[in-house]
Amino acid sequence: MTATANEQKTGRTVAGEELFESLAHFVVLHNGQSPARAERIADQALAFVGTAATATVPMVPSDDVDLGLHALILHTKEYAELCDRFAGRFLHHNPMPGGGARDPEKVAASARAMKAAGFMVFDDLWTVDGTNLAQCDSDCGRPYGQA
Predict the structure, then answer these.
(1) Does the predicted TM-score (pTM) go above 0.90?
(2) Could you read off the pLDDT of 109-138 as tens digits, one per residue?
(3) What are residue 128's DSSP bridge partners?
(4) DSSP string computed for the chain
(5) Which of 23, 88, 110, 142 is such that its CA lies 20 to 30 A from the CA of 32?
């Protein structure tokens, strides 16, 4: 498993074990993912929401992370509580029907924003149509943004 960062926070720890397990189970059940992969997807979805509240870039999930994000949104009470905790307001979801494919630059920028916010990012889950967008941003273990 490829993860960037030293001592970074995880989506799992900010959400709590009960919600985390429920999300991972949902992703296994409804998206056919293995339990281990579903846990990583759930973690990234939670970190995504934790970052979206304060990000200075438009946040767009990867293909994989979107599975976890949709599972989280369907946990309406818990999702609303997380939004309030991280953003002080409800973070609406706009699927942009008919809006075309995900913008790879915005997806990559979202992964970078999560790293900058102190979250662990699993690079292999940050893909669009199978193209990895986060690996080049892992900074080889250096603190994000430092040369």
Answers:
(1) no
(2) 999 999 999 999 999 999 888 777 765 333
(3) 131
(4) -----SS-B-HHHHH-HHHHHHHHHHHHHHH---HHHHHHHHHHHHHHHHHHTT-SS-----HHHHHHHHHHHHSHHHHHHHHHHHHSS-------TT--S--HHHHHHHHHHHHHTTB---GGG-EETTEE-SGGGSGGGSPTT--
(5) 110
